Amino acid sequence: MIKVGIIGATGYAGAELVRILTGHKDTRIVWYGSRSYIEQKYADIYRNMFQIVDTKCLDDNMEELAGKADVIFTATPQGFCASVINEDILSKTKIVDLSADFRIKDVEVYEKWYGIEHKSPQFIKEAVYGLCEVNREQIRTARLVANPGCYTTCSILTAYPLAKEGIIDMNTLIVDAKSGTSGAGRGAKVPNLFCEVNENIKAYGVASHRHTPEIEEQLGYASGEKTVINFTPHLVPMNRGILATEYASLKKDVTAEDVKAVYDKYYKDELFIRILDEGVCPETRWVEGSNYVDIGFKLDKRTNRIIMMGAIDNLVKGAAGQAVQNMNLMFGLPEEEGLRLVPVFP
Amino acid sequence: MIKVGIIGATGYAGAELVRILTGHKDTRIVWYGSRSYIEQKYADIYRNMFQIVDTKCLDDNMEELAGKADVIFTATPQGFCASVINEDILSKTKIVDLSADFRIKDVEVYEKWYGIEHKSPQFIKEAVYGLCEVNREQIRTARLVANPGCYTTCSILTAYPLAKEGIIDMNTLIVDAKSGTSGAGRGAKVPNLFCEVNENIKAYGVASHRHTPEIEEQLGYASGEKTVINFTPHLVPMNRGILATEYASLKKDVTAEDVKAVYDKYYKDELFIRILDEGVCPETRWVEGSNYVDIGFKLDKRTNRIIMMGAIDNLVKGAAGQAVQNMNLMFGLPEEEGLRLVPVFP
Amino acid sequence: MIKVGIIGATGYAGAELVRILTGHKDTRIVWYGSRSYIEQKYADIYRNMFQIVDTKCLDDNMEELAGKADVIFTATPQGFCASVINEDILSKTKIVDLSADFRIKDVEVYEKWYGIEHKSPQFIKEAVYGLCEVNREQIRTARLVANPGCYTTCSILTAYPLAKEGIIDMNTLIVDAKSGTSGAGRGAKVPNLFCEVNENIKAYGVASHRHTPEIEEQLGYASGEKTVINFTPHLVPMNRGILATEYASLKKDVTAEDVKAVYDKYYKDELFIRILDEGVCPETRWVEGSNYVDIGFKLDKRTNRIIMMGAIDNLVKGAAGQAVQNMNLMFGLPEEEGLRLVPVFP
Amino acid sequence: MIKVGIIGATGYAGAELVRILTGHKDTRIVWYGSRSYIEQKYADIYRNMFQIVDTKCLDDNMEELAGKADVIFTATPQGFCASVINEDILSKTKIVDLSADFRIKDVEVYEKWYGIEHKSPQFIKEAVYGLCEVNREQIRTARLVANPGCYTTCSILTAYPLAKEGIIDMNTLIVDAKSGTSGAGRGAKVPNLFCEVNENIKAYGVASHRHTPEIEEQLGYASGEKTVINFTPHLVPMNRGILATEYASLKKDVTAEDVKAVYDKYYKDELFIRILDEGVCPETRWVEGSNYVDIGFKLDKRTNRIIMMGAIDNLVKGAAGQAVQNMNLMFGLPEEEGLRLVPVFP
Fold this sequence. Notes:
homotetramer, alpha/beta, Rossmann fold, Dihydrodipicolinate Reductase, domain 2, seven-stranded mixed beta sheet, six-stranded parallel beta sheet, 13 strands
């Protein structure tokens, strides 16, 4: 039994970790960390867990937790993990960090986009970027995994094979993404109130959203070129789901069959990536509650562009599901253990 | 491996059966019946099942299906099951009927409220009303189970212990129920369009809804008295969930502890019924996607009434989940097999 | 031109006052009071008002405001109006208080249900309860109007004629009410976040909601009997709208025509009350954005009860619209000035 | 008093015409045409109009209607207006066609994208494209106005000044648009059911949506260049609103002030177009129920692109509101008559 500690267990991503791990046969949660709800029963905060989880929330003492857990998930705001991590902790336990602290290899880029000083740059190099389908082998042996962001997971996986194979002109890539509101977190802020989000759609963080450099770095590795993109997130009045609509000019004269073959080359054996039949557009409802990434595309001969579309559940493949997938890899478990979640519809 | 046939597999309840049975380790679905989509791939209708279910829809030939399946779920409109069932079929297979055809023992009551002739009244007596927590033993040996309605499951279980113990005056019982829109089915009707349901709440079927006599019959058995109630359903702009708010005058001078003890007497060992702590109101979000019934109550000394509240997921405990629970009982499997579904939130 | 001051102009009710008064030909808003946003442009908070309202928010200095405005709307939390009102202010200006401070005549009842001390009980007697269709004449000459609550407006008007005419047994009255989320206000609280409200329905304040004594007092006046009711509010995932479903036993043997005649007796000439045709249930969508109250009913011979249903827009007839209707009466304007708002659907 | 006939009065756009014209002081609706509801009371279909509209639905006899109405709005499916229009009708009445029949000047382009034969190509040249802010003068004298599509109104107006002034490279223009569900119409179709749309976002009509050539034609006129774009519509779980997020490479080295000046040059005096302050993103909630177009933009020096964003209410500026604005122009009325609708929030 793998002993799991969660820091930030009462955020939406943390709660999704609890939901998924409750159905994981090889793990036991030993620490429900939540600075805001110390000493309160976890099931009083998330009443779906009534009679399922019978324990109280603890603080975020990583030192103590490192001695008790085989793996720690930090589902915490930017800067937390970097501020507490040290060699002693890493010598005792593995860490899957759901924040951005160790995703970006260039510390200056991190500090510029996030506006905070990185407190543990010495671990950045060691950290493995936990996009399982791309970095599977390095993850297996990692002590510290940087779990990718929700928008980034969707945006990267949707374009990755075409970037890798040089099919698309990376300088033309535009990612127009749409997210459910759980991505905004559980903080009590006026813009996230029901009446402010419902019956509305808006863009935000235009040309400045923090997931931009993460997408650029990873697609840069894939394409072998410096990649600078437009990334525009939008807030959608729904709980879960991200849809990324991506546009790029074609560098080669390809048919739909060619493109399909490229996707299949990379994803055919991936359990959690489903390449849709031609002409089928992914929809967030079809992946809700599951770890799937659904990908579709359309060639437009009129503009010589390809429109790629990817859909995920932001809390599963975009956060907790991928974190568990990473944990499975790190501990030599079947990668899909605990993640055979059938999408819930309607 | 139990071979399962589903008639009506592309309705919302049928699709939920597919979702649940996909995670059930002792069953295999051998027949996805759907009159509307014959010969189409099931996963083309419910794309969440892409790469999970790889088969086509079939017709609703019960005779043929009876020879192939150990159990048939009929998730069909009123009248269908009664019109096709016969001794030959029942001699070959078990049936869990999700329609109302065999729920009401008095055929005249059925015909009056449903406005159709009952085509197989000879099987009404044999049919067991599949409210598992109440009729568990009879269900184990049944050939034909009448799976309760969604509103009725919630309404009955919420009041049952107090009716049984004579705590409440049955003549004063009022059930004000609120349902998500999946309860209205997947038929293409204007009143169920997004723009018609969204940003709205309404009552419907006031003093005439078909679930009324079913609640009355079962609570009549529980209380030992003829029970005539007001039942008012409302349509809520959400996908899933039923909340029943029930009012009744108290026949005895009871404390909250007394009432809690009565609920515990009947439900303490029930895995799927959760009696909430005092002062906690059930909410549909805490049971979404699961087979739980959450029940809370409040005594009002000012009016000498008790307000009972129950919440279920209408597609799970209110339809497919309870149907599988019935199947498990009928086949001697652990009652919760396939049903340890953790509620999904948010 | 009537000069209007609004205290609490950036809450949802205050903002609705701004919207309505923008279309009122006899008023001019001279004071947008908002303690939280002093010195900020009003249109930066409510961007729908961009290029419509071009002024900044001010504080809540009632003394100063009284010298500048002909009428003040206090759309503020409980206790504010009572804590600042005095004879000097009332000698200079009229007040329509949208809080509960002056709704309840018995100060002990107020203090018990609201849990705060009433700071100006000397004005309670003078204050007129601003339910326009009931207290029209007194409102015309009032200096201080207590604008009714949203739930109460809907609950009272739906039952009022039957209470007044002795048709229903007041001891059996049960009000099961459902409200959109704008009724919860614009405060940044976790329970009102989008993901907490969406895809959910719950009861709250069961047997203890503060609107209860207000309904009881007014229906007590109507029926001439002490009235004690059950009132249960529910939170619905929609922005606007209240639906009250009310149950009562009949004291007389009446037909639907009789009941219709009673409603017509009181409401036939009321512009803002629409008695629906028999069998038609009110729905919140049909009154959204308007000052209408839609009322329907159903007799149930089986239980000898009547089910009455009323629907309003909680921000209009339940708050700002009724406040403007009161103002119109107080200033001798046509009662419907500024309120001929056609419901917006979808 | 201008006598107005509406064909298609029970669709969402038709109903919005009714709502708006109800508040228009110079018009009277003489014909509520609705093939599906002939002889039914209009207020029985749209109950928001109870006691406001007291008349029955009529058929779609344009010949007869032409003799009775000064102007006819055809809020009908593609092909209807073209199939019934003739010189006799146009000699008696003016027509504002809300369908696509007369929007596209090249009949071959129309027939290719819409897949139907154009039955009255002889009137295409005469028809004026009713984008009021662009073609105001021609509209004043038109007999036949082709009211622009919802997506197109938003997409064109958002980019128009920059296209006209040669700021953006038209070959790089990408329009990623998001629409509320009322844009899908009131037809009873499974994909538009509440449970299918709610909690979901999807793209549709990728690289093939019929509004594409309309946008291309108009922006081609503006830029003076043949314009071929990518246009991708998405369906959002909300009733109303369109947000267009548009991307284009810059042809000139411009500052935000330069761009703002360009927008101001064209729109400063336009009542219904609001250019937002720098850094402010338009949101559909701020224009809901109104005829406004809110436009914002962001320069991205990293990619040398501009991101333009526009928001409208698809039923108002995207359909009925603009149709009334066109009517006002055609009859020499103040352009904003009946259209001073303050956006409704929340």
